[in-house]
Amino acid sequence: MTTTELPANMSEAVSRTKHELRARIGDVAGAFAGVRGRMRREVDAVAADPDAFPVVRYRDIADDKVPQRTLDAVRRRGCAVVKGTFARETAETWDAELAAYLDGNDFAGTYQGPADDVFAGLASSQPQIYPVYWSKPQIQARQHEHMVAVRRFLNSFWRLESEGRVWFDPDRDTAYPDRIRRRPPGSASLGLSAHTDSGSVERWLLPAYQQVFRHVFAGNWQQYDPWDGAYRTEVDEYPSTVMCSAFRTFQGWTALSEMRQGDGVLHVVPIPSAMAYVLLRALQDDIPDDDLCGAANGQALPVNDKYHDDLLPALTSIPDIEPGDTVWWHGDVIHAVADGTNPERWGNVMYIPASPHCPKNAAYAEKCGRAFLAGASPGDFAPEDYEVNWTGRATIDDLTAVGREQLGL
Q1: Rounded to whole angstroms, how far apart are CA atoms 349 and 183?
Q2: For residue 351, which of 25, 99, 235, 243 sits 20 to 30 Å off, Cα-Cα?
Q3: What is the pTM of this model?
Q4: So which domain of life are we looking at (predicted)?
Q5: Is residue 349 part of a domain?
Q6: What is the domain extent for residue 221?
Q7: pLDDT tens digits along 262-282
Q8: How far is CA 387 from the centre of its chain?
């Protein structure tokens, strides 16, 4: 896997690409008008649906008895809470072990402040996102048979065979090691404005992404299927602090504490096809030729009132969460973290996405395997390497056969 080279002149590259895409589409205004009408109807449907964030029971996944109406809701909404993925007692034990791991290695005394620009507004002495990847609880959760089953279930929503190729194996996991969040009672939530991950300007500029959105950029937006895996495994993003070297069918996290609506929790626009709106919006005549509605390299793709006011009324909170629940959203789904505080509850999670086996993911997982053995930060994250000399870090002896395969070991 190679890193995509950044254009020497980004403004010029944007202008040139927008000219080419407009010519390819033809009636750009008409295409956007069609998408806009569809999105407004979807937003109205979300507003009228008290269960717009679907809930799945882990036991139903394990027994292959998820109701059809729930399957339909996940496909339409592009998100899900899986209740009881892990036992509450297991999640609470992991939470306590993580706290002991951090305290035992004096993380508070050695923390150098946020290396990721996204979190630079936080006080360095009181992080909420911890650059920790190799604790035993994180390893145990990633390789757990319940997590494997849930990820396989989520991968099944995707069309893995199209354009004459099979794009990934939905039944095999690869690791995408990520961080943890620990938000103490009474602390302000790390609010994040609405955005999508895994590519910003890349979604217009890169040939592989243009293939992902080939129907949109051909003016046939009605044919766009957000669940089609075609070409997504061939996208390499520009180097930045928010790049992702893996194809994630779903982003996700595992709850280690209770969270309630109003605590400053995840919100999503539960419309995975909204990406067609975002892509076409940037090509309209009211947007300068060198602008992609505020998208820029090195940042997540922003979604805001200035350009995307039709979509944001659909922002929907996750339901109340218990320790052991997992929360998931399609890689294209617009999401945000609300501001808020709660004087009583922690807000603790482990970030674990679904990243099925394909050459792109396997190559990155092997790099992560080497980082694991050294206790170093994974390649997609700043090289802070706090855990290199920590005691109690997971070792290869803590890996099951599944865990070793996930890390290419």
Answers
A1: 9
A2: 235
A3: 0.95
A4: Bacteria
A5: yes
A6: 10-406
A7: 888 999 999 999 999 999 999
A8: 24
